[in-house]
């Protein structure tokens, strides 16, 4: 049995030493390397403990100092610190489940304090070793019996025969259960997911409510066409076919999008969209826009709403995860969890997402969306381990999965972009650009795809095309911008447009503003705006995050989280030129 001993029982200096050593191991592990937010949170809690904090840090301090929330954060109405500490607990449990330990770090339930837990028994034992007090007592009883000789006609023999018979019954039952388990799992671990993959949600687009004037009816038809054209391009929703007025509905949808158009006396057009969940007839999202005559009938202003409805991090995906946060079933629930994991950088879900994606692919080996998602998971495994054998294995599988996705569906945006990413990561800019451009042509509404294709183009020296795509990504959905937004801010800063670069960085929400790329870009922009002290403080935070010494070169630090050498070279030069770090000493 394991037990957590209190700090009062142990030598405080010894406890602090163990906490520091375990923290170093944790932060160097692939699990924590892939989760900058949880790494920063762990560092904050440990630093609070090692500084001699007599009590747990407050939720407000965790939110503002560790999780990037602003000073007006209200812990009474926002549970973000509690949620993130819960995820840290889960990640710690996952790490120690795979790692033999004598002592480990734990954050007890109901507390934000880091404590040391010790094993009171060895981590593992063989079948011959006694398991505990009950085994010791049993051994003593056997020894005591060996020292006595029972009479041949002892009445105790009848119970002994009954006990032996009972043991045989138990053995037979256990054997039957074992055979049943082997039969159930004969297809491998994926057989644990016994259900068929859950299909993606079906969405019905109602005919827009509009007036009877010919102009209003024309605008209604244009809006209906724009919405249908956009929604059909996404892989995470299926669009129900339109029906004639009064016709019977072909099937039951999961969501219904109601729209209305009202033309004002000034000539503007008010457009209202309401998304309803059919199962309980609840409106879960709505937006209203006022469009000028110049913005109709093309309805370009509707494009961000289409992306926010059906995109990877859209309203429908969030609704699935919020209603069923622990559902990792094959199919749509698994894909929703995958995108939520990317959105929140929650590496605690990497293993269940990996498993359910493999189960989805086992059920449908030609599913390009699941193949592309698993390829991206494996690229994520490769990045922190890219100089190791495990990293090379992850890279090879990621590329093979991307190839399968493309071969399975060469005319889908998922298959094309999977191969584009594989080409870019292999240094094949020409192949990556060709595949990426074809994917964008199939779905010009996908913010995530536009952002990363823009990033790849910038890396390949196609600055103008890359910037257009980066801006397009932020226009479509700026709620979780991540690395593409940082890339755009860095590009603007290089061009001397510090105010716009700063505005982009200031509007990046958590957890995006906790990533190392963000710290680097913000330091450069701050220095170029004359805030050199603040910029160097940001650089110090980046050194702590990457666990590099104070005299580490920019190339050493950036190499911890940036893959492409040319990007490392450009960013290192910017750090020196802006004054964040000292200039290179001439040889």
Descriptive notes:
The chain is of the alpha/beta class. The protein is 55% helix and 8% strand. The strands form two sheets. Strands 5-4-6-7-8 form a five-stranded mixed sheet. The chain has a three-stranded antiparallel sheet with strand order 1-3-2. A hairpin with a 5-residue loop joins strand 6 and strand 7 (269-277). Helix 14 (389-408) runs antiparallel to helix 15 (413-425). The longest helix is centred in the N-terminal third of the chain and has 28 residues, at 157-184. It starts with a strand and ends in a 9-residue tail after the last helix. The relative contact order is 0.06.
Percentage of β-strand residues: 5-15%
Structural class: alpha/beta
Q: What spatial form do the alpha-carbon principal axes imply?
A: globular
| Amount of helix | 55-70%
Q: Mean of the pLDDT scores?
A: 83
First-last Cα distance: 61 Å
Low-confidence stretches: 1-8, 121-159, 182-194, 244-249
CA-based gyration radius: 29 Å
Q: Please report the total strand number as a whole number.
A: 8
Spatial ordering of strands, largest sheet: 5-4-6-7-8
Largest sheet: 5 strands, mixed
Number of alpha- plus pi-helical segments: 24
Oligomer state equals: single chain
Properties at a glance:
disordered N terminus; alpha/beta; 587 residues
What's the structural blueprint in terms of helices and strands?
Blueprint: E1 2-3, H1 12-28, H2 30-33, H3 36-50, H4 59-66, H5 80-97, E2 103-106, E3 115-119, H6 133-146, H7 157-184, E4 202-205, H8 214-231, E5 238-239, E6 255-263, E7 269-277, E8 282-291, H9 303-310, H10 315-323, H11 332-344, H12 350-363, H13 368-382, H14 389-408, H15 413-425, H16 429-442, H17 447-459, H18 463-476, H19 483-494, H20 498-506, H21 516-528, H22 532-546, H23 554-558, H24 565-578
Parallel strand pairs: 4-5, 4-6
Antiparallel strand pairs: 1-3, 2-3, 6-7, 7-8
């Amino acid at each position: 049995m394991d037990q957590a001993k209190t700090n009062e029982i142990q030598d405080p200096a010894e406890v602090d030493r163990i906490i520091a050593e375990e923290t170093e191991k944790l932060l160097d592990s692939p699990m924590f390397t892939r989760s900058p937010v949880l790494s920063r949170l762990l560092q904050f809690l440990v630093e609070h403990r090692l500084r001699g904090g007599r009590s747990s840090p407050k939720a407000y301090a965790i939110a503002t100092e560790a999780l990037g929330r602003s000073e007006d954060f209200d812990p009474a109405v926002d549970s973000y610190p509690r949620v993130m500490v819960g995820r840290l607990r889960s990640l710690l449990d996952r790490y120690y489940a795979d790692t033999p330990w004598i002592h480990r770090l734990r954050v007890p339930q109901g507390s934000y304090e880091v404590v040391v837990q010790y094993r009171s028994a060895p981590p593992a034992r063989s079948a011959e070793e006694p398991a505990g007090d009950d085994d010791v007592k049993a051994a003593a009883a056997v020894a005591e019996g060996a020292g006595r000789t029972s009479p041949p006609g002892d009445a105790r023999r009848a119970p002994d025969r009954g006990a032996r018979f009972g043991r045989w019954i138990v053995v037979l039952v256990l054997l039957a259960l074992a055979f049943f388990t082997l039969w159930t799992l004969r297809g491998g671990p994926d057989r644990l997911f016994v259900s068929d993959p859950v299909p993606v949600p079906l969405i019905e687009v109602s005919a827009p409510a509009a007036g009877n004037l010919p102009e209003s009816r024309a605008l209604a038809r244009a809006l209906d066409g724009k919405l249908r054209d956009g929604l059909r391009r996404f892989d995470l929703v299926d669009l129900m076919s339109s029906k004639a007025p009064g016709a019977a509905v072909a099937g039951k949808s999961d969501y219904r999008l109601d729209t209305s158009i009202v033309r004002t006396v000034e000539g503007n057009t008010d457009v209202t969209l309401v998304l309803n969940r059919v199962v309980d007839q609840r409106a879960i999202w709505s937006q209203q826009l006022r469009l000028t005559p110049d913005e109709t009938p093309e309805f370009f202003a509707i494009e961000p709403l289409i992306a926010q409805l059906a995109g990877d991090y859209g309203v429908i995906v969030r609704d699935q995860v919020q209603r069923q946060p622990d559902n990792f079933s094959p199919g749509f629930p698994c894909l929703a969890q995958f995108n939520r994991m990317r959105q929140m950088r929650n590496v605690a879900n990497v293993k269940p997402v990996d498993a359910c994606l493999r189960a989805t692919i086992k059920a449908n080996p030609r599913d390009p969306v699941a193949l592309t998602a698993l390829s991206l998971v494996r690229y994520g495994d490769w990045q922190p381990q890219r100089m190791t054998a495990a990293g090379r294995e992850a890279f090879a599988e990621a590329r093979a999965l991307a190839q399968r996705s493309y071969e399975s569906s060469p005319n889908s945006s998922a298959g094309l972009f999977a191969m584009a990413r594989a080409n870019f990561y292999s240094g094949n800019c020409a192949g990556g650009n060709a595949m990426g451009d074809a994917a964008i042509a199939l779905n010009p509404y996908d913010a995530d795809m536009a952002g990363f294709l823009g990033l790849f183009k910038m890396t390949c020296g196609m600055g103008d095309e890359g910037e257009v795509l980066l801006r397009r990504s932020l226009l479509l959905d700026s709620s979780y911008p991540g690395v593409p937004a940082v890339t755009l801010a860095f590009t603007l800063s290089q061009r001397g447009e510090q105010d716009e670069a700063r505005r982009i960085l200031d509007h990046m929400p958590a957890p995006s503003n906790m990533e190392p790329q963000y710290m680097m870009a913000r330091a450069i922009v701050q220095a170029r705006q004359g805030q050199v002290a603040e910029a160097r403080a940001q650089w110090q935070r980046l050194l702590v995050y990457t666990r590099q010494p104070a005299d580490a070169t920019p190339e050493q630090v950036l190499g911890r989280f940036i893959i492409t050498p040319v990007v490392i070279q450009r960013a290192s030069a910017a750090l020196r030129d802006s004054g964040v770090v000292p200039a290179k000493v001439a040889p």
